[in-house]
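Exercise: predict the fold of this chain.
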Amino acid sequence: TSTRDSRMDPRMRARTAQRARKFIYDLPHKDHKDIEDMLNMNDAWETLAGEHLQLRVVEIDKLRRYNQQPGTSAAKALLDHLGNRNTTIQDLFLYLHKIELYRGMGILKPYVPEK
């Protein structure tokens, strides 16, 4: 941390850091994990993948297989897929709105510019 950063109001520093996070892979681990867990509930990831991202059945089946592997999940694989395509946090926010995952939107809100 630079001297200038250490003198800045901690709340301002946090807000600046949050706004600088643009892509899904920029999210802090806890927020990424919380979104992943929410997408895994009731297979919300599948609704997102099939209905809103128009992934093919074969791609969805491939994602589903991640649920059988320890330490990973279909939702994590989907978030990784989106991250590899430089999907922004704002795009993910809009996708969560489409599948009515409002708690997830609340987690992402600090990283999304207000409009």
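Check your answer against the key: DSSP finds eight helices and no strands in the chain.
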